[in-house]
Amino acid sequence: MMMMGDTFGSIGSGMASLFFIWATIQQIFPNHMKIAIKEFLLSSFQQLCFAQSVSDHFTNFFSPYVEINFPESDGYRLNHAFSAIETYLGSKATDKSKHLKGSQVKENKDLVLKRDEAKVRDEYKGANVWWEIVTSSDGERSFKLTFHNRARSLITDSYVQYVVEEGKLIEAKKKQTKLFTNNPSSQWVYGQNMWRHIEFEHPASFETLAMDPEKKEEITSDLVAFSNGKEYYKKIGKAWKRGYLLYGPPGTGKSTMISAMANFLNYNIYDLELTAIKDNSELRKLLTATSSKSIVVIEDIDCSVDLTGNRIKKDRNTRGQKNGEQDKDETSVTLSGLLNFIDGIWSACGQERIVVFTTNHLEKLDPALIRRGRMDMHIELSYCTHEAFKILAKNYLDLGDHPLFGKIESLLKEIEISPADVAENLMARNHLIDVDGSLNNLIKALEDKRNRQRSQNDGDKKKNNKFSFF
């Protein structure tokens, strides 16, 4: 068998020789000789291809082994079986392996040892199988599973499912939330490398979030209902997704809210940068490559691309694009393209997905983008209230009450200040917690802001009085 395989394996080099000979003939022989020789070489080439085909069929017919390939991606969608197999094989015992790979991503983490072998042998109910990671010429990875034909039913009906389920269980036990961001399409390779990620370690939680307790309770209850709503969404005939619009002035905690949501649900975050996407087609490919149990985030959506309500300008730009006037560096992601993914046909491509938009200027967004049913829950993150301040005082100063709280409460009712500004004044200086000093710093900052606001209001009144004489 091996001798026959070696014999037919030389066919490829024979074909290469034919092409070399033809190139040489082109330079030496006259035209009438070239035609005759060309016909002869073509006939020989056809015979070689036929022999190669016969060899392949012959080898496959007599080979007792079966192969199954599991590619990393299926079109532009992730093949979850691939990642589950990778996790399963990585968890196999390392005490018998002769080739190991050690990694320590962070200094405070233990050294992790994994198998570093091209082939891994596994055994299941007496049947031997071999796994091999294969990389094609175009860079696409796949796992190749090889086993004897007599174990076909056992492997296809039971073993493969066992490996996938075990891999998912292992991944669930050690799951680390990840933060993804999209790569430019020039870096994509056959549907892969669209996203890059790092481990997400933001410590935000709803307990430490500076927000009124009643509003936090409303949000967490909604998140729990969504995560447990698979059967409910199926019953009502809607895609299992939910939209949240976070709006408010800068520094009011919109990004922190997203981090708290991800930690609360243990969902991955996909931070979508619209300006790096060329068109709606790329947008669909990116979004369909996201996993379930994820939060797709577009921060400052009013600044990302032109998704405002200026329809006339959009129409004019569309006509310009048709006439070849579009700037090659300018994104052509449209409002309709984004809406189609949020609640159109493409919204069903993926389960248990949350979409979050943030903006500092709600009035700039097209009403079609944020209507109920697309952005199901509108959450206003506003200036710091007394309840939010008490949470910050607990976080930064480990303080539940203080005689100065009353004065701070009255000042917060008079002026508008973001939770981020309040937190900055409460932070310990030189790593030393001085409760009275921190609270007095905050009071001084609030009083200074109040005085500036009063001076500005007085100036406005004088201007109005001045113009009222005319």
UniProtKB/TrEMBL annotation:
Any single GO BP term: response to stress
Renumbered residue ranges of the record's region Disordered: 449-470
SUPFAM superfamilies with a match to the protein in the record: P-loop containing nucleoside triphosphate hydrolases
Record field: catalytic activity: ATP + H2O = ADP + phosphate + H(+)
SMART domains: AAA
Residue stretches making up the AAA+ ATPase domain: 240-385
Keyword Metal-binding applies: no
GO MF annotation list: ATP binding; ATP hydrolysis activity
Cofactor: Mg(2+)
Compositionally biased spans, kind Basic and acidic residues: 449-462
The entry's keywords: ATP-binding, Hydrolase, Magnesium, Nucleotide-binding
Cited Pfam families: AAA (PF00004), AAA_assoc (PF14363), AAA_lid_At3g28540 (PF25568)
Family matches, as InterPro entries: AAA+_ATPase (IPR003593), AAA_N_dom (IPR025753), At3g28540-like_C (IPR058017), ATPase_AAA_core (IPR003959), ATPase_AAA_CS (IPR003960), Mitochondrial_chaperone_BCS1 (IPR050747), P-loop_NTPase (IPR027417)
CDD domains: RecA-like_BCS1 (cd19510)
Family statement drawn from the similarity comment of this UniProt entry: Belongs to the AAA ATPase family. BCS1 subfamily.
Record's protein name: AAA+ ATPase domain-containing protein
